[in-house]
Amino acid sequence: MSRIKSTFAALAEQGKKGLIPFITAGDPNPEQTVELMHALAKGGADVIELGVPFSDPMADGPVIQRSSERALAKGVSLKRVLADVKRFRETNSTTPVVLMGYANPIERMGTETFAKAAKDAGVDGVLVVDYPPEESVEFSESMRAAGIDPIFLLAPTSTDERIAAVGKVASGYVYYVSLKGVTGSANLDVASIASKIPAIKAHVALPVGVGFGIRDAASARLVADVSDAVVIGSRLVQLLEEAPPEKAAEMLTSFIAEIRSALDSAK
Question: Is 49 a catalytic residue?
Answer without folding.
Answer: yes
